[in-house]
Design brief:
With 292 residues, the protein is mainly beta. The chain is 0% helix and 54% strand. The protein is elongated, with a radius of gyration of 30 Å.
């Protein structure tokens, strides 16, 4: 049976049925984007609603990190952290809860679409020329409250290639590997606050070298794990050695001169991918793997 509360306001009598206790009908949040500086905004949202008790309801959100408050039921522009909510009905009944807003970090990801290469999802093989479409599948990057035209994606089909950029997740990248070698494609995903993530894909392509007349003697890389060094022989100046892990991530690069190059290599034992590129023309003049 419902109870009734009679409020006499002058000559006006208000009859309010009291049944269900005051409770939250829903409480939730939209995650905030990660930040690199304290002044940046994560654009998270907290929101709630109530039922029961004696309407109408008053809301009080409190940012437990800064002490900032609002009396709205929905509060936007929030950063990661915890927020206390108190809802009070017309007769003073109060309920309280705490909502903690998570942080969303960018996750770079791309899929390979091609009839010219096999394998995946990280390592691919094929024959030159091999045309590849890189489908952007990154997560937690587009900021729905951010401005348009902000560059959020940085793509390179090889370690030394010119960077292509995009502002939209819908942008795919297309590249043809015209020559043989071990190639590493990379995609950097960057949110509006500057948080980044990078994904690497590795392509081993059979075919002619980019510059057939150039020869660089790198077939006998001498490794010394005890002294953490590499000895690399080169027949040319103006070339550069790039070393990658098996995930295709570039670890170090070294300029080479003609003769024997002793290089410091502070990496753990294992197998590594390398390529050597002409610093003037950006042509690949050598590639392969070595054990360290």
């Amino acid at each position: 049976m419902k109870k009734h509360l009679f409020l006499w306001l002058g000559i006006l009598c208000v009859n309010i049925a009291i049944g269900q206790e005051l409770e939250f009908s829903f409480v939730g949040f939209d995650p905030a984007y990660c930040r690199t500086a304290g002044y940046q905004n994560g654009n998270g949202v907290v929101y709630a609603s109530a039922t029961g008790g004696v309407p109408a309801y008053s809301f009080l959100w409190t940012d437990l990190t800064t002490g900032e408050t609002t009396t709205n039921s929905t509060w936007g522009g929030r950063n990661p952290g915890c927020y206390e909510l108190s809802i009070t009905d017309m007769v003073g009944t109060m309920i309280t809860t705490t909502v903690c807003v998570d942080s969303l970090n960018p996750v770079a990801n791309m899929a390979v679409i091609s009839d010219d290469v096999l394998g995946g999802p990280i390592y691919f093989t094929g024959n030159a020329p091999a045309t590849v479409t890189f489908e952007n599948l990154s997560l937690n990057v587009p900021d729905p409250l951010g401005p348009d035209g902000v560059i959020r994606y940085y793509f390179k089909p090889t370690g030394a290639a010119t960077t292509e950029t995009a502002t939209s997740l819908a942008t795919d990248f297309i590249y043809t590997y015209e020559y043989g070698g071990v190639w590493t494609a990379s995609l950097v995903a960057k949110n509006i606050n500057g948080c980044t993530d990078t994904v690497y894909l590795s392509f081993t392509i059979d075919g002619p070298s980019e510059v057939e007349e150039v020869e660089v003697n790198v077939t006998n890389i001498i490794t010394n794990a005890l002294q953490q060094t590499l000895l690399v022989g080169s027949q040319l100046n103006n070339v550069k050695l790039y070393v990658y892990n098996l995930g295709g991530q570039i670890l170090v690069s070294f300029p080479l001169v003609e003769g024997i190059n002793e290089l410091q290599f502070n990496q753990p034992k294992g197998m590594y991918i390398y390529e050597i590129r002409n610093e003037v023309t950006d042509a690949q003049v050598g590639s392969g793997t070595f054990m360290f």
